[in-house]
Amino acid sequence: MKNKKAWSGRFREEMDPLFEKMNQSLSFDIRLYKQDILLNKVYSNELNKLGIISDEDLNKIIEGLDVLEKDIEKKGISIFTDEIEDIHMGIETLLVKKIGESAKRIHAGKSRNDQIATDIRIYLIDEIKEISILLKNFLESIVFVAENNLDIIMPGYTHLRHAQPLLFSHYIMSFFFSLERDYERLADSLKRISIMPLGSAALSGSGFNLNREKLRKDLGFKYISKNSIDAVLSRDFILEFLSNISIMSITLSRFAEDFILYSSEHFNFFILSDKITTGSSIMPNKKNPDSLELTRAKTGRILGNFVALFTVLKSLPSTYNKDLQEDKERLFDTIDTIKDVLKVNKIVLDYLELNKTIMKNSIDTLSFATELVDYLTLKNVPFREAHHIVGKIVMNCVENQFYLTSLTEKMLVSYDKNFKGIKDDWANIETFLKRRELEGGTGLNSVKKQIDYAKKKLTNNFTI
Amino acid sequence: MKNKKAWSGRFREEMDPLFEKMNQSLSFDIRLYKQDILLNKVYSNELNKLGIISDEDLNKIIEGLDVLEKDIEKKGISIFTDEIEDIHMGIETLLVKKIGESAKRIHAGKSRNDQIATDIRIYLIDEIKEISILLKNFLESIVFVAENNLDIIMPGYTHLRHAQPLLFSHYIMSFFFSLERDYERLADSLKRISIMPLGSAALSGSGFNLNREKLRKDLGFKYISKNSIDAVLSRDFILEFLSNISIMSITLSRFAEDFILYSSEHFNFFILSDKITTGSSIMPNKKNPDSLELTRAKTGRILGNFVALFTVLKSLPSTYNKDLQEDKERLFDTIDTIKDVLKVNKIVLDYLELNKTIMKNSIDTLSFATELVDYLTLKNVPFREAHHIVGKIVMNCVENQFYLTSLTEKMLVSYDKNFKGIKDDWANIETFLKRRELEGGTGLNSVKKQIDYAKKKLTNNFTI
Amino acid sequence: MKNKKAWSGRFREEMDPLFEKMNQSLSFDIRLYKQDILLNKVYSNELNKLGIISDEDLNKIIEGLDVLEKDIEKKGISIFTDEIEDIHMGIETLLVKKIGESAKRIHAGKSRNDQIATDIRIYLIDEIKEISILLKNFLESIVFVAENNLDIIMPGYTHLRHAQPLLFSHYIMSFFFSLERDYERLADSLKRISIMPLGSAALSGSGFNLNREKLRKDLGFKYISKNSIDAVLSRDFILEFLSNISIMSITLSRFAEDFILYSSEHFNFFILSDKITTGSSIMPNKKNPDSLELTRAKTGRILGNFVALFTVLKSLPSTYNKDLQEDKERLFDTIDTIKDVLKVNKIVLDYLELNKTIMKNSIDTLSFATELVDYLTLKNVPFREAHHIVGKIVMNCVENQFYLTSLTEKMLVSYDKNFKGIKDDWANIETFLKRRELEGGTGLNSVKKQIDYAKKKLTNNFTI
Amino acid sequence: MKNKKAWSGRFREEMDPLFEKMNQSLSFDIRLYKQDILLNKVYSNELNKLGIISDEDLNKIIEGLDVLEKDIEKKGISIFTDEIEDIHMGIETLLVKKIGESAKRIHAGKSRNDQIATDIRIYLIDEIKEISILLKNFLESIVFVAENNLDIIMPGYTHLRHAQPLLFSHYIMSFFFSLERDYERLADSLKRISIMPLGSAALSGSGFNLNREKLRKDLGFKYISKNSIDAVLSRDFILEFLSNISIMSITLSRFAEDFILYSSEHFNFFILSDKITTGSSIMPNKKNPDSLELTRAKTGRILGNFVALFTVLKSLPSTYNKDLQEDKERLFDTIDTIKDVLKVNKIVLDYLELNKTIMKNSIDTLSFATELVDYLTLKNVPFREAHHIVGKIVMNCVENQFYLTSLTEKMLVSYDKNFKGIKDDWANIETFLKRRELEGGTGLNSVKKQIDYAKKKLTNNFTI
Predict the structure, then answer these.
(1) D414 assigned to some structural domain
(2) Distance from C-alpha of B142 to C-alpha of B164, rounded to nearest angstrom
(3) Given a cut of 70, is residue A4 above it in pLDDT?
(4) CB within 8 Å of chain D, chain A residues 275-334
(5) Domain range enclosing D55
(6) For C204-221, what is each residue's pLDDT tens digit?
């Protein structure tokens, strides 16, 4: 029989090539070759301690793996022959080719079940660190933009209708605080990712008395898995990651949606750089915010990856099932996607121009209506009545196209006598801002405090 | 400026390379090159009729496109330079290189918006036809297996507990009828896919008076889109396809789950071929049903693709938005996946062996309890009372480890006098089957009729 | 033992009350009481034909069920006692109370497995008919609004940037054509819903020789299920419905998104009626488009229902499993939701006011850039060059704040000599529209044809 | 105008009743009445400090709210009139009815936007505490069952095929370690939930200088929101919760799947209590594991809720949009579902019986094949060769129906001379277990350590 699978001993017939194609994971788990080589080095060292691998063999193995790492880096998948199922068998096979029989000793007492679970955890820890750096870079751009546009005024929206004025710096800082939580979720998740499964073998634990504590240290894990069954079958750490990135993508979809709106002709608050926009194949007039639209769209892709793996895992029996092979492509895709998104949106921010005058002038005077309500409230009119009175004033303005701020004391008093004595500056933007210096409010000092907090956080606490 | 984008006229600055990487779709929409080339041929012909492309230019274009098609087939993506955004610009650019200025005329009056919508519809129609052939092949295997194992008896399950006996042929034919509906859904969807958007241009319709009826015929569509806005923005036809395949994958996940169970040591009804099973890297005893586990898992992947595109489309404003670019990778992945799954599971069926004796002997005699109830019912005992009486008999069997079929008339009469005169064959498998010859029942003739229906359907009505 | 469950014969212990609460479905499947009563009448009639129910009993049963139907209509769930599991047991139990022993005969030869599958199909057919009527009503409003605003001009958008002008009537009719396909999907699905499972019993077919053809006619189904296993376990028809409504909700989310934008202060194209807007508890100035925001949000809810049931069904083994009980709440919720959405959005349309002047005046003159390109193309300039030349003109306009339409022949000729002789009306909206009278274009006659088509379709072909 | 909405000042026309029905949230947010009343008390106190509410009014308000809380507890939704939109307006309206004008003062300086975000966070914190107690109870049952069945042996499975033996206690403890992480996720999430939005008002911060630190303390929050925009629009904390419960439900779906399998006739390892099983309406023989099937199915429902809210939130612009109203029903449903699931599955465990002999006897002797491989490996045969040799032995056993453990030294030596001298106990279960005493392995002492860890954890660290 031509079948060269490492496990072919008990099989009479070869795999059908159609199944072989579906079954193989090498085309995507090749991404884990560094992690797998690291693991094999550390593990071979332990087998040496246990007397299963001789000193001489160990040297050959380590050197062989070193060469192999460079070879794969250079040649990629072309280095492997067709019948290779996955990166583990791929590396073992190449190593046998390179150093001979010594290589046949490296799989003693481990299984691909604990090996892949270990590889992917090492990989994911590294990627989370990279993502957190990209996120930090993006947040630094947010803070930079906020600080450099501290007192720019813009309309604030609820239900996409003018609500109350905002400082642009306050607005843009809202993304900092959303994304800070997205960062914290990633940081928290490491506790559950940095757990070493190695030593669990297929499901019941290795038959050799491995020093798992030593393996843990050498591989850079924080914890050791406490139950071998749980260790080989659990993919909750990938689900948690996919979910965390999904939730982050929701924040970024708000960013994209806002920026698409605010840079559209009808708002015209923001000017987007040519660097991150595109044109049309037919209409020479177009300058399209493709970077932001793609950012918005990636939210769907990222959710899809979570749902895909979730549904894969639903109602799988204990312990390892081949279904778990589906975890990797979804994971890799989410990682690649969020990294692109974070990089590109940093450019969006870094080259953002504000149409400051348009932003300020867009503030609808009706946005100060709540100030009138508060005025009456402070004059002891029950809030709900004050609200109703001002509602009538607003209706009058809308129907007769008055500016709310142009109403004189006299006109106001005709609605309610408590307006008697009201000063002109009640609906002044300065007054409005000053009244909102409580923590989290859109007052200038409040925003400065937010920025100070952010800068400190970015300096001290943003290393995973 | 080095920027060579076809739309670069109004831009001062070049795209950032990070954004360029995120923005390009060539790496995946290259898959549509044949469709795009066909479209360009047919469309250039129409521009020729309108006097926009001369006869001489047309000849050059057609010949150039023919050569290009072969070039791309041979060299793949390596034929394109880095700044190419998508397959449309790719083909236009290469054509310009090959035949010069004539190629710069082909985009008149069309937009990438209607072009991509047209390309992808042509592509999808072809793929649905291929999928329906693979599905037909799989169904033929089902019918073959049913016909060749017509009278094999096995336990039927509800709640994964023994319920009533079944003919294996009846059981396996249940997949035919599920998948027949999955096929019908695909067939129905063609009405909504075979609609030509070409002529809709960017959103408002082409400025040239194209003969859309001629374009339709030449491209092989059934219908012409009736509203240009709807034509360029709608992706419901892709959602419908992704959903149809998702629903089909649910049927296949049942197939996989059953086959995993029935081929496990505890059931031992089915023997799976070595061709579609694998071994373990550590445990030499293992023979694992990876093909079926992957089939089961692909259900998640396929759902993920639907959810991804659905979420992308949610609340997009009119008309075309770049978000739509996310449709293709999810579509292609679902197409590739279902084709693999159908091919591999046909092999599962074609090499299936049955442990017929074990299947038959596994029938729990308690599975005939309903026959006793029916017996009493026919003796005028109200059904609900009969059910309760037999429930007591069952409890006695369970607690005392009797076979239900070993109960004598006397013992039965002690529960209810109406059992007086009951013959031994009341709980005989032959009697059981004969009592179920109504349409859709598990009786032998009923199953033969099902098979006859299926064979006729497969012969006459399975061409999309 | 107090346990009064109909199937309690073989059980020693009672259900735990916590499980009883989780297990019961009466609180939601009570919605199917009419369908269940109808089924019981038709089925009892058949049992009478088979001699299992006497004429006298049959009369009692039919009369009892008639009374029961009215009782349930009046008193709702309060009519049932606590231990009732589901509507089937509920009706049988109440009937026994009302008419005594005769009622204990009605369940002979059927199972809750085929009964619920039959009930829910009858129910769903009815609901689809209702939904299609609501959809028709909504489409009639679209056509009405289109016809009454035939020649209103507005900007058309791609990437939420001004692209080319559109007729409002063309724009609004785009929803007709999207929703027409959504309707067709529902219509097509009926083939797969109107299949009667009754007679399949638990899984293997009824032990009594039922006349299924007669049952089919009496229950109003088009087809009879052909395989009892498939009949009791398949829920693909519910998935298909949930998916069809999901896809419809995507169209409606576009409607909502557009209307939110177009009625916002920055666009100010549409005025929404007070009837479907709300105010703020704190800001008296607000008038919020809550109806549209909820419409947009319901898309998520409706998708969630599809995903929920899909994931429930994934990898269930044959045949019936209790998991299937989860189908109903998700189905009912989607039905209720889409009906509300269709009703409320019809009001949105019926009371819509257009700010026609603002719509027209919002057209950016750059939107005519493609006309200039086409002009050059007709003068034999290769399209791609023409596009580039006009791109330069656009850039000049943007940077110097010119109106594109204010460029004189002389200025144009300075970009390209082929502009020599160009008339003033090249970028006239009238010319623009006239150039787009091809099928599906935004030309006036093209839109009239769309409306004519729609009116005919609504009159003749919109009855499921 | 009859319109009694609190914000009706600027509106001419009443809401359409169809929209009113769709718009209202009282039917579900009534669940938050206690939280809303608490908030109003604490907030009124603060308004009193600021001089906006007099001492006398404050007393009336507090007393009124106390009475109201009892009224709502007693009468439920019937206490509210039809036009009430939500719980906030409901409570204000009832309070006005009860105590008159004083009640009209309570909404000064707050908005429903910050109010609902505060209410739901208080509510969710409480519910997470309840869920963590239910989870703790379930985990205690796991540990109890493990400790009381410490040395029961069963087959372990990969790919649902016999792999290697396991201690049942090791197997059942695997759920402890999975669920421990599910618990930790909930615990971690509290940092992001226990943040008080109150004081953010509609979006820009309250116009009154509220002492937010005092409000925080009185409401029991850990933190104060730092940016008012982020505070009113963010629902990531709900997504995180829905995701955390989803991930937990995957663990529980494995529990359910295993228990369904292991209690089926073919495995017959577990006997399920009558308390959590059901019968069939037609087949008196059935005893169905409905509790476990429903547990498995709820996974879909819980995922659906996450997907629903996720899709709702995707690409919402800043700041509050009515779409957010869709968060509550999905949240409540997930909370109710997981609580039922945890309660019922505790009963499953507490009344579980083991068929210990069957479990032990089911161990396939081939499960010891890896021991043979390890034996050779220790004799210096390279692992991969040893694996291949034993594969051949296994094939021989399978094809000739030998027990692997019945092979004599002589027979083994015929495969490889290194088997010379092998003792009989190499494939003994005792040896197998002893070889797996490394941390996390299935050895008896290893499992004891796991149990010790779990007991300590449950005693000390399980209070959120």
Answers:
(1) yes
(2) 22
(3) no
(4) 296, 299-300, 303, 307, 310-311, 313-322
(5) 14-108
(6) 999 999 999 999 999 999
DSSP B112: H
Question: Could you read off the pLDDT of B418-452 as tens digits, one per residue?
Answer: 999 998 888 889 999 999 999 999 999 999 999 99
Q: How far is CA C144 from CA C147, C458, C463, in A?
A: 5, 12, 19
Q: Is the pLDDT assigned to residue D1 strictly greater than 70? A: no
Q: Are residues C184 and C251 in the same domain?
A: yes
Mark yes or no for CB contact A230/D205 under 8 Å: no
CA distance B325 to A290: 10
Average pLDDT over residues A179-201: 98
How many other CB atoms are found less than 10 A from the CB of residue A227? 28
Please indicate, yes or no, if residue D9 is contained in any of the structural domains: no
Nearest to D106 by CA among D62, D147, D74: D62
The tally of domains found in chain C comes to: 3
Chain C residues in contact with A367 by the CB 8 A cut-off are 283, 285
Complex ipTM, two decimals?
0.96
Q: Are C279 and D10 in contact (CB under 8 A)?
A: yes
CB-based contact B273:B351 (threshold 8 Å): yes
Q: Which residue of B has its CA nearest to C192?
A: B181
- C377 → chain A, closest CA residue: A282
Nearest residue to C338 (alpha-carbon basis) of C301, C289, C288: C301
Q: Residue D107 catalytic? A: no
Residue C401: the pLDDT is 86
Contact predicate D251/A312, CB 8 Å: no
Q: Which of A421, A405, A425, A402 is nearest to A413 (CA)?
A: A421
CB contact under 8 A, B293 and A202: no
pLDDT digits (tens, 9 = 90+) for C57-107: 999 999 999 999 999 999 999 999 988 999 999 999 999 999 999 999 999
pTM of the predicted structure, to 2 decimals: 0.97
Examine the pLDDT at A281 and tell me if it is beyond 80: no
Helix (H, G, I), strand (E, B) or coil at B162: strand
* Cβ contacts of C311 on chain B, cutoff 8 Å: 303
Q: Answer yes or no: do C98 and C124 share one domain.
A: no
User: What is residue C224's three-state secondary structure?
Assistant: strand
CATH (domain of A28): 1.10.275.10
CA distance A341 to A324: 27
- The Cα–Cα gap between A171 and A352 comes to 15
Q: Name residue C196's beta-bridge partners.
A: C224
> H/E element holding C65?
helix C55-75
Contact list in B for residue A283 (CB cut-off 8 A) is 111, 202
Told to judge if C107 belongs to the known catalytic residues of this protein, a careful annotator would answer: no
Contact across the interface for A441 and D377, Cβ inside 8 Å: no
* C163 interface with A at CB cutoff 8 Å: yes
For residues A95 and A192, membership in a common domain is answered with no
- The pLDDT assigned to A429 comes to 94
Say if residue D277's pLDDT is above 70: yes
CA-CA distance, C225 to C64, in Å (whole number)?
Answer: 30
How close does chain D come to B254, measured CA to CA in Å? Answer: 14
D437 shares a domain with D409: yes
Beta-carbon contacts of residue D27 (< 8 Å; ≥ 6 apart): D77
B165 chain-C contacts, CB cut-off 8 A? 204
Q: Cα A398 vs. chain centroid, distance in angstroms? A: 44
Which of B171-185, C416-430, D420-434 has the highest average model confidence (pLDDT)? B171-185
**Residue C3: what pLDDT?**
47
Q: Outline where D149-193 has alpha helix (H).
A: 168-193
Contact yes or no for A362 and C283 at CB 8 A? no
Radius of gyration of chain B (CA): 31
Closest among D127, D246, D242, D124 to D194, alpha carbons compared: D124
Tokens of C79: 């009519």
Give the mutation candidate from A274, A286, A332 for the B interface (greatest B CB count, under 10 A): A274
Same domain, D179 and D295: yes
